[in-house]
Every structure is written in structure tokens, then in C-alpha cells.
User: Which sequence fits this backbone?
């Protein structure tokens, strides 16, 4: 099945309000261009340097047709390069990182940058993200964090993102997605300036159906669109 056919099949199978982020890690410019020509509106990259190179190869006219999402861990020393490239950084995992981004946005000429807070809902030490702590009430902690982030003037908080534990059985992440949605709904009620909890980014190629059932309206899909990565 071609990239076009895979994308069209997935697009037809999921609700129209769910946005597909094409996870383009290690993909070629030809593959990404084919997907843009097919009508994709959002591309996700894991690394700043790969996004920078992809945009250069696509050329400004093609690159501007889509929104660019940072979906990998953002290192502090990459912030200055990331801000001009990305429309949304989905992987903000601390108040410190949010503050660092906020301080540098204005210098790039942008008025603000959209972010999501990344939740490590499975408390997996091998992954990034804000992790639940058994010694504190996580929902209360997140509410305070969102209130603190809302004070920053050059970023807009637009939702939450989670990876969720990866299982062979796509049903197994369901309780983790459900808990994240419950947190999302609580934070959405805060009604804070510069906070608009529009997006819940959950689910990848092996779990996006379950994530959507549990409330995701952003899904990050790579393999199911592009096919298996070349391991060479």
C-alpha cells in the first residue's frame, strides 16, 4: 500500500475532529512530500536538526503548507533553533523548560509559541515527561504547574501529550489514556489566560484507535502511514 493509500485509509477511518500528526523520524524528503501532496496538515519531528534539514530540502513553499510539531525531547541547548522551526512543541516536561522557551520566543520575532505538556503517565524511567509521584497528588501538582505556566507571556499552553506504555496488545494502554483524559478535563476547567486546552495528543501507530476512543484528538502516526522504517 502506498503512502497516499495508507494516509487516506486512516483518515477515512477516524473521526474528522482528530488531527493526524505524521511522525517523520528517519523518513525521506520524497516520502514526506508525497504525504504533504496527499493533504496532511501536520508533521512531527523528533529532532531539531532533522526538522531543520527536512524543511530545507522541502523548500519554503512546500514546508509552509503544514504545521511542524516537535514530538521528541527538547534539549535546552536546542531551544533557540527549535523556536523558529516549530509551530508547536509537544514535549514540554517541566516549568523550567517552559520558562526557558518563554524567555527566548520574543527574540525570534514570534509573539508566542504553542506548547503541550508531556505526561509520563506510565511512570517509565526510560521515557521523558512529567511523572506521577506516589507521594503527591498528581492532579493537584499538574493544576499548580498549569497555573505557573499561564503566567508566562510568550507561550500558549494548548493541551497535554503522553506516550503511554507500549504494549503488543493495543488494549493495554487504555487505562493510561483514560487517566490522562481525566487530567486533561480537569485542567480544561481552569479557564486561565494563555491556556486553551484544545488538544490531547495520545496514541501512535499501534494504539491510536484506543487512544481516540479514550478522547485523543491528536494522534502521532508514523509506521502505519509510511511503512516500517529502514533499519539500515
Assistant:
Amino acid at each position: 500500500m502506498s503512502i497516499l493509500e495508507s494516509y487516506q485509509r486512516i483518515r477515512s477511518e477516524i473521526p474528522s475532529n482528530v488531527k493526524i500528526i505524521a511522525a517523520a523520524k528517519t523518513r525521506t524528503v520524497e516520502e514526506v512530500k508525497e504525504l504533504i501532496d496527499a493533504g496532511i496538515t501536520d508533521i512531527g519531528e523528533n529532532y531539531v536538526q532533522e526538522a531543520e534539514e527536512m524543511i530545507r530540502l522541502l523548500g519554503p513553499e512546500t514546508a509552509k503548507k503544514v504545521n511542524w510539531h516537535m514530538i521528541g525531547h527538547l534539549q535546552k541547548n536546542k531551544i533557540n533553533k527549535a523556536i523558529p522551526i516549530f509551530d508547536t512543541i509537544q514535549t514540554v516536561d517541566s516549568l523550567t523548560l517552559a520558562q526557558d522557551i518563554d524567555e527566548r520566543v520574543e527574540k525570534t520575532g514570534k509573539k508566542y509559541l504553542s506548547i503541550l505538556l508531556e505526561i509520563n503517565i506510565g511512570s517509565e524511567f526510560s521515557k521523558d515527561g512529567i511523572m506521577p509521584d506516589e507521594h503527591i497528588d498528581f492532579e493537584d501538582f499538574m493544576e499548580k504547574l498549569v497555573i505557573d505556566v499561564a503566567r508566562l507571556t510568550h507561550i500558549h499552553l494548548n493541551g497535554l501529550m503522553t506516550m503511554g506504555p507500549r504494549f503488543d496488545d493495543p488494549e493495554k494502554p487504555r487505562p493510561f489514556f483514560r487517566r490522562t483524559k481525566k487530567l486533561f478535563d480537569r485542567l480544561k476547567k481552569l479557564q486561565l489566560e494563555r491556556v486553551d486546552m484544545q488538544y490531547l495528543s495520545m496514541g501512535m501507530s499501534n494504539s491510536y484507535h484506543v487512544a481516540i476512543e479514550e478522547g485523543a484528538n491528536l494522534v502521532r502516526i508514523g509506521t502505519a502511514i509510511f511503512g516500517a522504517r529502514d533499519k539500515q
